[in-house]
Amino acid sequence: MALSTRFVNEDAADTDAWIRAVHTGFLKAAELTQEDLDERRARQDFQRARGVFDGDRCVATFRSFDQRLTVVGGGTVAANAVSAVTVTATHRRRGLLSGLMAADLAEAKERGDVVATLVAAEYRIYGRFGFGPAAAYTTWRVDGTRTGLDPGWTLRESEGTLAFIDGAEVRKTGPELHERFRRTRAGAIDRDAGFWERATGEVRFDLQPWTEPFHVLYRDARGVPQGLVTFAVDGHWEASMPGNTATVRGLIATSPAAEATLWRFLLSVDWVTAVDTGRAAPDSPLTLLLPDARSAAVREHADFLWLRPLDVPRMLAARAFAAEGELVLGVRDPQGLAGGRFLLNASPQGASCAATSREPDLVLDCGTLARLYLGETSATRLTDAGWIEERTAGAAARADLLFHTGRRPWCPDIF
Questions:
Q1: Is 195 a catalytic residue?
Q2: Which residues pair with 117 in a beta bridge?
Q3: CA end-to-end span of the chain
Q4: Known catalytic residue at 218
Q5: Alpha-carbon distance 162 to 159, whole Å?
Q6: Mean per-residue pLDDT for 143-147?
Q7: Which of 39, 60, 94, 339 is the most buried (most CB within 10 A)?
């Protein structure tokens, strides 16, 4: 029987088969009930969900949706967010993902999206589609017994307040706080109402039992929310002594001072002897706050947000640059969506970028441009590794001056 590819949003049977295929593709063995399927169908956006069908059975899935991505300087670009990518193990190596990706990226380009984004479960898959790793994360485990911090720390009234809040208050306060946070961090993305419902257990897509976390809100001295941390505690005791680990599920802050306050709070909670930071910003000030920085051990450091250029001139013109100068980039794109030669005129006051016939100073593929775009790595390092060809002497160093950022990009959200 021939395989067929179609959108699944018009037919409930197709949508249910698609949801089951996602479940199988991510190797989740628990059985989905009809109630589970109805809940997902009612709550999830299926407008751009595609499936490949072998008869009535869905054997490959793909979904994209609109997203706003924060870039250097606090501006945002329209992104085509890719998610729920699976191919059932029985139907691998037939080009199913290639067909789904090609169709979706072509539509995103036609729609006017500036970039495409995704979180890559497997590293080696997405480079061939023009994606590159654009932001990473680091997870630390902090031994609270050896940080050297004052165990009697409390927040002074002049510095603000900390309060435990419930899920309803998170859904009320969190969205506006997050909007202010995401403008401060390149790599951050917008959150819809569904995010807050899932994060607080109001809507439960995970088949595992829900464990209610703790939420702590930091308000500054004026009473304005500036930070929010959500964490769980494992309840571990040994020899009649508490030895709990606080595992962070999410931490956002609008300033370094607000972030420092939340980390300091977590490390001061009675009965908590260790903190697992979850997927924190790779340049978080956390370790610099500790008198003994070795008390924070890196558990994991990995790529996270991947990016694919679709419109190079708009993409480059949207971000801020650290210095004034010009650069001609020769961008290669085997898919033919974003390639060409582009003249970048950059300055701290703004930038312009347009197609040009001039010879390029640097030649790179679009996935390598993704690595450079948000400041995750340097042009010199990419040139040293052979990812960039330097046609004009000193061009890589010039690119580093232009693309320099004081902070590394970070995306706290999986999608």
A1: no
A2: 81, 307
A3: 33
A4: no
A5: 10
A6: 96
A7: 60
Q: Which of 126, 181, 218, 304 is catalytic?
A: 126
Task: Give the count of alpha carbons within 13 A of 78, CB side only.
Answer: 12
Identify the burial level of 9 via C-beta atoms within 10 angstroms of its C-beta, where 0-12 means exposed, 13-18 middle and 19 or more buried.
Answer: middle
Mutual orientation of helices 12-25 and 34-43 as an angle, nearest 10°?
A: 100
pLDDT for res 241: 83
Whole-angstrom Cα Rg for the chain: 23
Beta-bridge partner residues of 52: 5, 60
pLDDT tens digit sequence for 60-111: 999 999 999 999 999 999 999 999 999 999 999 999 999 999 999 999 999 9
Q: What is the value of pTM for the model shown?
A: 0.95
Six token digits for residue 240: 């009649």
Q: Per residue, what are the HEC states of the chain? A: CCCEEEECCCCHHHHHHHHHHHHHHCCCCCCCCHHHHHHHHHHCCCCCEEEEEECCEEEEEEEEEEEEEECCCCCEEEEEEEEEEEECHHHCCCCHHHHHHHHHHHHHHHHCCCEEEEECCCCCCHHHHCCEEEEEEEEEEEECCCCCCCCCCCCCHHHCEEEEECHHHHHHHHHHHHHHHHCCCCCCECCCHHHHHHHCCCCCCCCCCCCCCEEEEEECCCCCEEEEEEEEECCCEECCEECEEEEEEEEEECCHHHHHHHHHHHCCCCCEEEEECCCECCCCHHHHHCCCHHHEEEEEEEEEEEEEECCHHHHHHHCCCCCCEEEEEEEECCCCCCCEEEEEEEECCEEEEEECCCCCCEEEEHHHHHHHHCCCCCHHHHHHCCCEEECCCCHHHHHHHHHCCCCCCCCCCCC
